[in-house]
Write a structure and sequence with these properties.
14 helices, metal ion binding, magnesium, elongated, about 425 residues, seven-stranded mixed sheet, Alpha-Beta Plaits, binds guanosine-5'-triphosphate, 3 domains, Rossmann fold, four-stranded parallel sheet, GTP-binding, binds magnesium ion, GTPase HflX, alpha/beta
Length: about 425
């Protein structure tokens, strides 16, 4: 646990009449807190468009300088992505370190990244963010912006050298290098995925806004239907608790199996560099047979969050995967739960009946290729009986003179394998 006190900051936003302004500012506070900083003052300015030179109007810049000096604050966080010169001018005008929204999100990711792949992905996104910001006199500022101070800091974990010495060419070389390393890791991940595809298990991906409860749902499902040795995934009431993708196998009492994945959450204005860098992490969603969009039903901004999630999914090229929407955290609202209307569920991840309803819905969606059939298996082929007992839903077993008679619900592919033992026609099973 980080025991150092949170860095005090001032947040600044321009209100140009957009409907989502208040929500964006509230979210900015949550992002600030996720970066181990705390908002001591929020400054808003009504302005139709940002000042091209300084973002805020000139008078406001002076006011910010005064507020910062009075509050003893040396960091200002801006609600939008700024141009390199806006950052430079604002820093000079306010005598503070300026972090824009994109820089803030990149810092959070840099602090969260654990695995080699996550670190490389964040590093790539950060280098790409820095490249156009590397103007001659800006390098010093850049060092301040992404390096020292605040809750973040790439200097130690980023490209490994002081940003001040980093020429454009060095950054470009680093980008090439990181890309190459990521490609190698991705190939390994591709191989794993291909392996799983060969297992032919249906796959379901949990997607949605950060903090919606994806990991909590994953854990609830794994606890009941996972393997004993499966680890619980990390859950915390903070933005971007999860960065990497975990995949777990679920086995239901009727022997039906599926793969469930949990991945990084989304937020509005997720930097495009990050979305691109995390494309391979998010590929699990692109390759899924079904998406489960998890929504924080208790959040007043849930519609905007859903719009952001759906837009981000389009950005990573996920357009035609069927989706079930789970309105989670219903326990924090007055709405009765669990309920289902078509492909929408209202539930709570902390409630057993909710998990039952979710499982029933998921099974209905992904196990349509099942058939029910009667087999008569000679005693000499006992291994087939053993296989079916392990891999299929055995509904009835009778021992007869000619062998073991089983009534079994099983995937079409297994049915085809054991066709020779069938004694009556299979009846199709829709669920
Ligand atoms: N009351 C209530 N809290 C919930 C429920 N589901 C999740 N939470 C809480 O919401 C917070 C976020 O949950 P996570 O499962 O970490 O959310 P996530 O979607 O994985 O978030 P990221 O990994 O940041 O994308 C945690 O504090 C959970 O305990 C629920 O149904 N009811
Ligand atoms: Mg999570």
């Amino acid at each position: 646990m980080d025991e150092t006190p949170a860095t005090p900051v001032i947040t600044v936003g321009l209100n140009s009449g957009q409907a989502t302004f208040d929500y964006a500012m509230t979210e900015l506070t949550a992002l600030v807190e996720a970066n181990h900083m705390t908002v001591v003052e929020q400054v808003q300015q009504s302005l139709t468009r940002p000042n091209p030179g300084t973002y805020s109007g000139t008078g406001k810049v002076e006011e910010l300088a005064t507020i910062a000096a009075d509050d003893g604050v040396d960091t200002i966080v801006v609600n939008d992505e700024l141009t390199p010169s806006q950052i430079r001018n604002l820093e000079a005008g306010t005598n503070t370190r300026i972090i824009d929204r994109t820089g803030l999100i990149l810092e959070i990711f840099a602090n969260r990244a654990q695995s080699r792949e996550d670190k490389l992905q964040v590093q790539l996104a950060t280098l790409q963010y820095q490249l156009p910001r590397l103007h001659t006199s800006a390098s010093q500022r850049l060092d301040q912006q992404t390096g020292s101070g605040g809750g973040g800091g790439f200097t130690n974990r980023g490209a490994g050298e002081s940003q001040t010495e980093m020429s454009r060419r060095t950054i470009q070389r680093s980008i090439t290098h990181v890309n190459r390393e990521l490609k190698e890791i991705n190939q390994a991940a591709e191989t794993q995925r291909a392996q799983r595809d060969r297992n032919q298990l249906p796959s379901i991906a949990l997607v949605g806004y950060t903090n919606a409860g994806k990991s909590t749902l994953m854990n609830a499902l794994v606890q009941r239907f996972g393997k004993n040795e499966d680890k619980q995934v990390f859950v915390k009431n903070m933005l971007f608790a999860t960065l990497d993708t975990s995949v777990r196998q679920l086995v239901f009492p009727d022997q039906k199996k599926l793969l469930l994945s949990d991945t990084v959450g989304f937020v509005s204005q997720l930097p495009t560099q990050l979305v691109k860098a995390f494309r391979s992490t998010l590929a699990e969603a692109a390759n899924a047979d079904l998406l489960v969009q998890v929504v924080d039903y208790a959040d007043a901004n849930r519609d905007a969050m859903m719009a952001t999630t759906e837009q981000t999914l389009r950005e990573i090229g996920v357009t035609d995967v069927p989706m079930v929407t789970v309105f989670n955290k219903a326990d924090l609202t007055e709405t009765p739960y669990p309920t289902r209307a078509g492909d929408q569920l209202i539930l709570s991840a902390n409630d057993d009946a909710s998990i039952d309803l979710l499982v029933q819905t998921l099974k209905e969606k992904v196990f349509h290729n099942y058939v029910t059939a009667n087999f008569l298996i000679p005693f000499a082929d006992g291994d087939v009986v053993a296989y079916l007992n392990d891999h299929a839903n055995v509904l009835k077993t009778d021992y007869q003179a000619a062998g073991t008679q089983l009534r079994v619900e099983l995937p079409q592919a297994d049915f085809n394998r054991f066709k020779q033992y069938v004694v009556t026609e299979p009846t199709s099973n829709p669920s």
